[in-house]
Amino acid sequence: MADAITEQFSAPLTFNWTLSYQCNFVCSHCYSRDEVAEELPTEKIKQIVDLLVKQQVPFINFGGGEPLIRKDLLEVTRYASDQGLNVSMNSNGWLLDHATAQQIKAAGFKSVGISIDSADGASHDDFRNKNGSFARATAALDALHAVGVKTTMSSVISRFNFKDFHALLDLARKHQVTQVYLHNFKCSGRGFKNREDLDLTPQEWKDFYVEALQVKNDTDDLLISFDDPVIASLPGYEENPLVKGSSCGKLSLHLRPNGDITPCGFIPLVVGNILTDDFEELWYNSPVLNHMRNKEAKGKCQGCGVYQDCLGGCTARAFATTGDLSEPDPHCWK
User: Fold this and answer.
1) Is the peptide bond before 299 cis (omega within 30 degrees of 0)?
2) Burial class (CB within 10 angstroms; exposed 0-12, middle 13-18, buried 19+) of 49
């Protein structure tokens, strides 16, 4: 692998893989609920696994859609795990009871993330547009813990929960979760349609991150993680990431259900197809990926003293709101 200075690796560390856009929820912020794509049969999916093994990609994470809707998910996971891949997934938890947790354990999943956006059951159910979803999600965490599968909790921060994230952390502790991801709100898909209701102002984002970083630094019984490059400008941010700015196209790629590759799930720009195109050619020479790896400051980013730390913030958010990968992140408070 190349060193971090070049921001160019021989392959992504992670493929975020959407096997299906089908979902039993209609969440207010979902990037993919309105997406449609042909789904590959099991044998084609195994061919992709073989290719990822050949390229020495160490991690795959199944998302969606809801991964457990795919009847072959456990078969595919066992196939990948047997070849040394580290497999994880994110689920809404609805289909994950104790028996399924045992099957997940047997299939070789390294960890499973459950999406919970409020510690208040009624608020979570309302946000997810699914009555009973909170009870099922917390029960899924308990079932996974009972069989010895590492659990994480994913919470998308938005207007309806940004003042209550402490309660989310307490909920994670209650259900023996090891890591909580406080995800930054994206403006893709339904998230774009509902942006005015769900997104925060730049100043509110700054205030949230200042507080959340302090909580992270003061917490030793729970790992709190963020995925927002815009926070690199804050003095309380002490991470030393492998790459600056967005990791999409540098450390990770996204696979659509038909095998198309995009930089991430929130950037609907197809760079090629993993089954029909030469992967190394795409990885090294894709104009889209190379643009993302070599962004040039635009607008207020020009002359900004912290641009080299955040590289303009979240590329997906900039693209969703402006159509330009290099424009400043609309969440930036500078």
Assistant:
1) no
2) buried
Q: What is the CA radius of gyration of the chain?
A: 19
As a whole number of angstroms, the distance between CA 150 and CA 145 comes to 7
Average pLDDT of the chain is: 90
Q: Answer whether 236's CB lies under 8 Å from 217's CB.
A: yes
Region 40-61 average pLDDT: 97
Distance CA 259, CA 39 (A): 8
Four-residue CA torsion sign, 231, 113, 22, 107: positive
Please list, in sequence order, all residues whose beta carbon lies within 8 angstroms of the beta carbon of residue 194, skipping any fewer than 6 positions away: 28, 29
Rounded Cα distance, 97 and 263, in Å: 33
Query: What phi and psi values does residue 215 have, to the nearest 5 degrees?
Result: -60, -45
Per-residue pLDDT at 168: 96
Cα 179 from Cα 173, distance rounded (Å): 9
Interatomic CA distance for residues 185 and 198, integer angstroms: 8
pTM: 0.92
Place of tokens 């050619």: 281
Residue 148 Ramachandran class (φ > 0 left, ψ -120 to 50 alpha, else beta): left
- Joined together, the tokens standing for residue 226 give 């963020």
- The vertex-86 CA angle with 313 and 191, nearest 5°, equals 35
Counting beta carbons within 10 angstroms of the beta carbon of residue 196, is it exposed (0 to 12), middle (13 to 18) or buried (19 or more)?
A: exposed
Judge contact between 54 and 99, C-beta under 8 A: no
pLDDT, tens digit, 9 for 90 and up, residues 247-276 = 999 999 999 999 999 999 889 999 999 999
pLDDT (0 to 100) of residue 34: 63
pLDDT for position 186 = 76
